[in-house]
């Protein structure tokens, strides 16, 4: 019997439990739909907050600093959404180019 094979089997057996999750410490995984739903609602809330701040600034109830911050957050959210959309379209086009 080759001693190196025995050592490899022992090392594999010792390493295998390290790859398995520890009972009681599993994090509940969210599905893609739940995650996208949360992201969409966060985006909508950011957009709505920016609109409310802009309306308040036009009515004289908010200062210009608050307005600029709200508009910057809204702009960042829109840019992020456009970037994600572009990546999804790019991935879809790449899938279409794959040979079947």
TrEMBL record:
It is found in: Bacterial flagellum basal body. It holds the Pfam family FliE. One of its GO terms (cellular component) is bacterial-type flagellum basal body. Residues 14-33 are annotated as: Disordered. InterPro entries: FliE. One of its GO terms (biological process) is bacterial-type flagellum-dependent cell motility. Transmembrane segments: none annotated. The keyword Isomerase does not apply. This is Flagellar hook-basal body complex protein FliE. It comes from Pseudooceanicola antarcticus.
């Amino acid at each position: 019997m080759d001693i190196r094979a025995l050592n490899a089997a022992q090392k594999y057996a010792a390493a295998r439990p390290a790859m398995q999750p520890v009972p009681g410490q599993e994090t509940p995984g969210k599905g893609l739909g739940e995650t996208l739903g949360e992201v969409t609602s966060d985006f909508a809330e950011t957009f709505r907050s920016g609109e409310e701040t802009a309306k308040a600034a036009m009515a004289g109830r908010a200062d210009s600093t608050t307005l600029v911050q709200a508009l910057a957050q809204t702009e960042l959210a829109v840019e992020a959404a456009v970037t994600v959309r572009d990546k999804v379209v790019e991935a879809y086009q790449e899938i279409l180019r794959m040979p079947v």
